[in-house]
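User: Second chain of the day. Same drill as before.
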Amino acid sequence: MKFGDLIQSEKPVLIDFFATWCGPCKMMGPILKDLKSMLGDDVSILKIDVDKNQRIAQKYNVRGVPTLMIFQNGEVKWRQSGVVQANDLKNIIQAYL
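Assistant: Same format as last time:
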């Protein structure tokens, strides 16, 4: 499935733009697992390696990692760079459910 198709969902799609060499990006892994256990199927969570997907990163102007974005129906609803805690993400995502 293509990225453009994935973000067309009515369900919120959280994208974690990351890089394998990025320390703070590694901290997001367990946070996203916690978030998924809290919200289950109410949210889709995708990790996108900016080094392997440079066109997508450029299209969305990702300059720093980690950058988190929430898409819904193909639109960016929210974005923030840096580590965000699971409870904060949960509260943000619930606004779009």
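Helices lie at 3-6, 23-39, 54-59, 86-94.

User: Great, on to the next one.
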